[in-house]
Structures are given as C-alpha cells and as structure tokens.
Amino acid sequence: MASNSNISHNSPSRNYFWAFAFAVVLVGGYQTWRWYSAPPHLGASPEAKKKLDGLFTALTARDEAKLATCMERIEVHFAEGKLSENAVSELRNCCKMAKADSWEKAAKRLYWIVFEQPQ
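-> structure tokens emitted (119 positions)
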C-alpha cells in the first residue's frame, strides 16, 4: 500500500497568497520603473512652455538656426534659475540628437518629456 505522506497538497489559500504576492511585486516593479524613468520636471510657467514649443517647432522643422536660438533662450532660462540642471540636460540631449541628424528621434524625445510633465 502506497503512503500519501510524501505528496504535498497546495491549498487554495496558499495559491491565492502567491498570486497576490506576485501581483504586488509586479505592480511595485512597474511603479519603481516609472518613477526612475520619468523625465525631470521642467516647470509649468507660460514662459517655459513657450520655449519648449519653440524647441519642438525647430526640431520638427529641422531648422538648425531656430534650434540654436531656442537653446540659447533655454540656457538663459537656466542661468536665471528657472530650470533645473536635470531639465536642461534633457533638453541639451535633444539638441545633440538633432545635431547628430536624428531630428525625428529628438522631436519624439522632447514630445515624451513634455507629455510626461504634471498638469
């Protein structure tokens, strides 16, 4: 006669616990990823929005002169303390992408930065 003492039976409550734990880890990981991958806050002033609109226009038009002008204005805005170092770094990266002939990629990056700003 075979002994059933070596067979483990998973109870439904134990299965629910592991499913819940997995869901918590999954949601927590997603939220952590979103937190660390979010772009820096640029500031909600109308002046800052104008500068970003101008930069986006320069990127989509692939106009190097307008791009340079917009970046000069952004640098002045940064020097006045109205933009953080992280925000200016992101905008500089967009400019570098455009100068490396990745205009569309730079425009998409800027669009993502603006889209992810708090309302």
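The chain is about 70% helix and 0% strand.
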